[in-house]
Amino acid sequence: MTAARRAVVRANLARMTAHKRAQPDPVDYAPADQSPFGAARVVVGLLLVLAGAVVLAVAMLPQLVPTFGADPFTFLIQDRTGAPEDGNGTLLTFGALVLPAGGFSLAYLSATSRTRLWIAGFCAAFFTLQTVLLAGAVLWITGAGLHAAALFALPRSFDTGVITSPLALLFSVAAAAIMFVLAKRTTFDAQSADYFAEGNTVVRVRPLPVVVHALWAVVALAVLAAVLYVPLALIERAALDSAAGTLPEGSSAPWPRHTDLDFADARAAYAVTVGILVGAIVSSLIKKVLYRTVLRGYIGAPVSAQTEDRWKGIQSFAHYPIAVAGGTATAVVLFLLPTNDYDEPDATAIAIFTSISIALLLLGLFLLSSVWKSGDDPLHESALQQGVVGDLHKTFAVPDRRKRTPKRPKRPRRNR
């Protein structure tokens, strides 16, 4: 066998055995919250998750359905002053936050690891669909000429709460998606007992391939572009029908009728949120590329105990700057794409948010290029820490103790 052939075989074997500790473990680990009623608690939790969607549907469909016109993207002209205001704001809170978050937590913590994986995957997809539909309903009702709170038959004082309700659902999306990824691509299940008991641990990670990670970033950018530009295209379409504002009540007109503050605020809130998600994905991709190329030699390099402790506290925030920069950069695009003919781009706001975006990008690059100083492997290890409700200091403080999986010994470099 030639030397080149032997090198290929060794490379293939290395790929096959890489990250062995992060492969799915066949063991079905115990629930985080032990109870003789575990199965019943799982069922109740899932029923609460479904109940959240039912509550939202029952509360908003009576106001939403009558606005649809006969043709796609048309709405029925309605009397905006006669909208009912006899709804219950508690239904919105329970449907968008309490029931989804509480139901997922109850089901997840009461299930064994195999069932937890299924619950997390189902809830991540279900909450995402629910968030998209709720956000679409808010945009539709405001584009039809009604204020946002009219979606739930609430007074105008609830406008902000209705506009931000899809963002509240994102907390449940994030919780389910994070737990699903941890179970699929890390050693979390094997270390879950320590995590749930102590509140912190370091898991071994099987990273996504760079190409797949980049595709996720492209998909996220496509979603952001849709949120930014599709409403503008529909606004221009509706503007071609100059008689839309003079049609009698009950007539069908192209959507949207006009773009008042509620419509613009909702579009901006959702676009900036998607921009932050894009920034987070890009930040993670940048870190992966950095430590597979120019910073590869720094992984595992010795640092002082003081430096390691300091960066263990900072590394939790390493992705924040570029993630937020994604939101501020999205704001710049929103300033450049006004939704009304009489709106002019705000040069001052554009300059301020552009400067903030650049500063955050530079700060993020500095943090990402320094996280190796924490002592954790930037590519194959992730430090997990539970948040503590009502105690921000404990939530973000450097944990006193972290259990980690044994590290693989480094292979000596060969002289070339």
UniProtKB/TrEMBL annotation:
Please tell me whether the keyword GTP-binding is annotated for this protein.
Answer: no
**UniProt name for this protein:** Uncharacterized protein
Q: Which keywords are on file for this protein?
A: Membrane, Transmembrane, Transmembrane helix
Transmembrane spans:
42-65, 91-110, 117-141, 161-183, 214-235, 268-286, 317-337, 349-368
Decide whether keyword Nucleotidyltransferase is in the record: no
